[in-house]
Amino acid sequence: MIFVISIVFMLLGLAVSSRLKSKFAEYSKVGLANGMTGAEIARKMLNDNGIYDVRIVQVEGQLSDHYDPLNKTVNLSYDVYNGNSAASAAVAAHECGHAVQHNIAYGPLKMRSALVPIVNVATNAMNFFYMFGFMFMAYIFSRNTAMAQTVLLALIVANAIIAGFALITLPVEYDASNRALAWMESRGIVNNREHGMAKDALKWAALTYVVAAAGAVANLLYYVSMFLGRRD
Q: Which string of DSSP letters, residue by residue, matches 21-53?
């Protein structure tokens, strides 16, 4: 069953990711009326929010854009950094939205950052289990030992951490997009048509996180149901 859940959400994730890439490709062909590049938009948004200690860096890859709170850098892919399209404007402003969150100590972002080390441990534990643990689980489950309950509890804890991280990511991402769209509209960075494109692109980007969160919760519920079933 866990494989079925994983495959279903993997396929959903691939479908949403494919749609996001097609939207980005479509909106990358629409140049902004003001001709600003993603890097210029990022710098202006940071300055407008009184942020002057965050660097804007070009990085390799496609849709590899992210904000790094440790190094205080807005990292933009080549197409976003140099592009002057509705898509590049949306992504650049979104990543600066995270910089604004960091600057004002936005609660969900602080919680998300605090969870990163423990999430890494939980993720590594689950990866190890998926690679080597199933034969061990079959053995101890067949003997109905107390160890089976202990292992299930450990899996529940690991998946609860991963699911919690995925869920707290949602308000972080949606808030960054809302900040980006509101700023671009208020400062006249985009016109009505470009604003609609930027909003649509960010919507599909956010849906990738929604699918990931739903998959994490589904995994957690599966292990909880296994645990409760064995107790009965």
A: HHHHHHHTTSB-TT---HHHHHHHHHHHTT--S
Catalytically annotated residues: 95
One-letter amino acid for residue 13 of the chain? G
3-class SS of residue 132:
helix
Helix%, strand%, coil% for the chain, nearest 5: 75, 5, 15
Res 228 pLDDT > 60: yes
Please say whether the beta carbons of 203 and 132 come within 8 A: no
CA contacts within 13 A on the Cβ side of 108: 15
Residue-wise pLDDT for 46-96, tens only, equals 999 999 999 999 999 988 999 999 999 999 999 999 999 999 999 999 999
